[in-house]
């Protein structure tokens, strides 16, 4: 599948007359808990030719395609990506730190990855992951049942909140790294979570599971806990456009 994705991206770049600087897997396959029926969520950053940026006509700065074999392609023009980068866009940071890459300009990737610590905001990160956990908890838990996919859309953000609370840095993309660093899961809750992880390897994403009352209460308590933590985090830093402007110029010229 990797070769097919790389060929698809190469053909797309030729047809659209763009240069793909970076392409990776996002979502559950990057996080490390894909189901057998998970989509291939490929995300990429691309640069247009110089004349594209010197044109007064407003043009689309995104590429979105849903292709056969459950291949979901989503790309952002470099200018759009860097503007979002400056605002601490957590989805973009996760792309850049993805453990699964398809196309990579090493010089670009090393540079943009090195800039993340200077633009990461603990309060923005906390609000992002807390909102994700809370939304999935409130919207998808019915009694004690939830789709197995949605459970991990609650657990991973909560573990990311713990990481931010402790380290004030961008959490790793991989779920396993977050889980192994956690100190807030009791042994019983950890065993329950690990059991669901094993189950997810063979279960469809819509498979319903029953959560223990203890795990449900733990999730609720964690959400409340991080809501309180978020109140004391410092405000986001002022944007520094100079390094991003230079990176943009270096890639376009």
TrEMBL record:
Highest rank taxon of the organism: Bacteria
PANTHER family: NUCLEOTIDYLTRANSFERASE
Name of this chain's protein: Nucleotidyltransferase
């Amino acid at each position: 599948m990797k070769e097919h994705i790389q060929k698809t991206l190469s053909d797309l770049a030729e047809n659209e007359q763009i240069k793909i600087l970076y392409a990776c897997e996002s979502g559950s396959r990057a996080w490390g808990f894909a189901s057998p029926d998970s989509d291939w969520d490929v995300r990429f950053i691309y640069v247009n030719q110089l004349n594209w940026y010197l044109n007064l006509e407003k043009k689309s700065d995104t590429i979105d395609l849903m292709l056969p074999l459950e291949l979901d392609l989503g790309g952002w023009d470099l200018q759009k990506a860097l503007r979002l980068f400056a605002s601490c866009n957590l989805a973009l940071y996760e792309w850049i730190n993805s453990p699964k890459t398809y196309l990579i300009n090493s010089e670009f990737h090393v540079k943009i990855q090195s800039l993340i610590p200077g633009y990461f905001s603990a309060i923005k990160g906390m609000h992002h992951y807390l909102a994700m956990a809370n939304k999935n908890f409130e919207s998808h838990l019915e009694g004690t049942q939830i789709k197995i996919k949605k459970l991990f859309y609650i657990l991973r953000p909560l573990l990311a909140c713990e990481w931010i609370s402790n380290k004030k840095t961008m959490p790793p993309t991989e779920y396993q790294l977050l889980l192994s660093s956690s100190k807030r899961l009791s042994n019983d809750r950890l065993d329950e979570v690990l059991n669901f992880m094993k189950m997810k390897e063979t279960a469809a994403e819509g498979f319903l599971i029953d959560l223990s009352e203890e795990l449900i209460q733990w999730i609720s308590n964690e959400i409340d806990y991080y809501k309180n933590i978020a109140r004391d985090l410092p405000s986001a830093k002022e944007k520094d456009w100079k390094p991003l402007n230079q990176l943009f110029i270096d890639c376009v010229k």
